[in-house]
Amino acid sequence: MSEIITDDNIDTNAWSEFINEFQHESDRATAVLAGAFLENLLATILENFFIKDKSNIQSILYGFNAPLYSFHSKILCSYCLGLLPDDEFHDLKIIKKIRNDFAHKQAGLSFSSQSIADKCKKLTKVDILQRELNNIDLNKPRNRFIYGVALLTISLNSTIARPPDRCTPAKRSYLVISDKPIKFNR
Prior knowledge:
The chain is mostly helical. 54% of the residues lie in helices and 0% in strands. The longest helix has 23 residues, at 27-49.
């Protein structure tokens, strides 16, 4: 799914602030914070889509043993409910892996580490920026990651701003088989 980046769908000040904030963080902080940020956006999208039942939404998304507590679960559920297009689903899974690598490995990891650089190369949504950002080297893994996260942030915020119709509780329907009483043999 290709998008065209225009001034109409990007708040350029917010875009610059977002990019600048990550420019001053360590590689580890950038990856972990970006993952947490995207996870929170997915939680908001799911909250806005589920039926209006705050207590049960809290139970399914947050807290110990909540079925959709993990970033992975939120990504899968959002995709399976049709709230994410294929390219965003693809990139979110990669960002989750990068985030997990940084969060769970003690030391020696950076965006220039081969395993991380290889994952960053697989981010696809950022390719739409290549024509728009001539002065940014998107072949650098850190840049590719940051701008990929920024694009996902814009897209997910767009879904939050214009959410799909909220689910509604099911109504129990009864099927009338006959106008005569039904007898059950015991």
